[in-house]
Design brief:
Structural class of chain B: alpha/beta
Order of helices and strands of chain B: EEHHEEEEHE
Helix content of chain B: 25-40%
Strand order of the largest sheet of chain B: 3-4-5-6-2-1-7
Strand content of chain B: 25-35%
Order of helices and strands of chain A: HHHHHEEH
Radius of gyration of chain A: 19 Å
Oligomer: heterodimer
Radius of gyration of chain B: 14 Å
Number of helices of chain B: 3
Number of helices of chain A: 6
Low-confidence stretches of chain B: 123-127
Shape of chain A: flat
Largest sheet of chain B: 7 strands, mixed
Number of strands of chain B: 7
Largest interface: A-B, 33 and 32 residues
Strand content of chain A: 5-15%
Helix content of chain A: 55-70%
Distance between the termini of chain A: 64 Å
Chain lengths: ~140, ~130
């Protein structure tokens, strides 16, 4: 009979595999997308249509099963009005051979028909950059 | 009466997960899914429900947690807070649509829920990831 302890050992062994890092990124992406879908009260079909993708593929992304490219992830987030960027990469171990990457996503508002408000994303990005440069250098 | 053992427990988990022997048997060869399950448990299963989400209500208060196209973990929440999930079965569907035997397995879990045909294993002989993990 399989015990819980044996299952946890299987899990711990998996976490030592490089593949597990990719899964973590896919799960984080899926979380952001699912959260934004709920906020907008969209379903996956609407997101697929707006992103010009197949619904089956969007479903796989939401289940963290699809190994999508940065381009594809960007398109999905763009359709949801999300301004995402990689904000942190730190070494997981002393060899610096493995890095943990953190995504930071801010959601912008969308227009009446669900399209991302590009101007607002650009304005917000500029405002954040201006603030950070001013804080760092006293000017920008 | 099925006995469930704790799998993911502790304050770092928004949803604690318990699994029966039958569920654990189905999980042993699904390392990637176990990693997903831990992730979902930390975030809270409730946050993974909804359109397109991996956790979905089937019928009779029983939910499925999906992995890839065909693998399913089957269980139910202990109460309305959705902070504790009781997993009683796990299997890989043969096709996209549930077969009769697969529907029967879900019905069995519905019955176990309704008639409370399950119990938690004692604290002194249970494994599981705790808050120190």
């Amino acid at each position: 009979m399989t015990t819980a302890r044996e299952l946890l050992q299987v899990l711990e062994d998996y976490k030592r595999e490089p593949e597990s890092a990719g899964l973590k990124l896919r799960l984080d992406l899926a979380s952001i997308i699912l959260e934004r879908l709920k906020e907008r009260r969209w379903n996956q079909r609407q997101l697929a249509n707006l992103s010009n993708m197949k619904e089956s593929f969007v479903s796989r992304v939401l289940h963290a099963d699809a190994n999508c490219t940065f381009e594809t992830a960007g398109k999905l987030l763009f359709a949801l009005g999300v301004d995402a960027s990689i904000t942190d990469a730190r070494a997981v171990d002393s060899t610096a051979a493995t890095f943990e990457i953190t995504f930071d996503a801010e959601a912008s508002t969308t227009t009446k028909f669900g399209r991302p408000n590009v101007q607002e994303i650009q304005d917000k990005t500029y405002a954040i950059a201006k603030e950070e440069l001013t804080a760092a250098f006293g000017t920008y | 009466m099925q006995e469930v053992d704790r799998l993911f427990v502790g304050p770092r988990f928004a949803t604690v997960v318990w699994a029966s022997a039958r569920a654990r048997k189905g999980l042993i060869s699904e390392a990637q899914f176990l990693a997903k399950l831990e992730y979902y448990a930390r975030a809270g299963f409730r946050t993974k429900e909804g359109s397109g989400g991996p956790i979905r209500h089937e019928w009779g208060g029983v939910y499925r947690v999906a992995h890839r196209t065909l693998f399913r973990l089957i269980g139910f929440y202990e109460d309305d807070t959705k902070t504790s999930f009781i997993a009683l079965d796990a299997f890989t569907k043969r096709k996209k649509k549930l077969s009769k035997s697969e529907k029967d397995r879900i019905d069995d879990v519905v019955e176990a829920k309704e008639k409370e045909l399950w119990r938690k294993a004692g604290d002194d002989n249970s494994a599981g990831i705790t808050s120190s993990s």
